[in-house]
Amino acid sequence: MSYEAAAKSLSKGNPQKLFTKVAEVAAAALYLCAPAARSVKGRTLNLTGGEI
């Protein structure tokens, strides 16, 4: 299956039609390691681009 075909198939369940990029996952990980996230405890970050 080509990338284009896979993207089209996956976008059917994604109302925002966004796919999470590696840089976005890295940014979320950096945030969790930063002092600004010191009060974040036991949370799950959903990085799905709007997928249901």
How far the N terminus sits from the C terminus, by CA atoms, comes to 22 Å
Average pLDDT taken over every residue: 86
Largest sheet: none
Instruction: Tell me the strand percentage band.
Output: under 5%
Chain oligomer state = single chain
Low-confidence stretches: none
Describe this structure in words.
It is a single chain. By secondary structure, the chain is mainly alpha-helical. The chain has a domain at 3-36. It is 38% helix and 0% strand.
Q: What brief labels describe this structure?
A:
mainly alpha; 0% strand; 2 helices; 52 residues
At a glance:
This protein has 52 residues and is mostly helical.
Helix/strand layout:
Blueprint: H1 3-10, H2 22-33
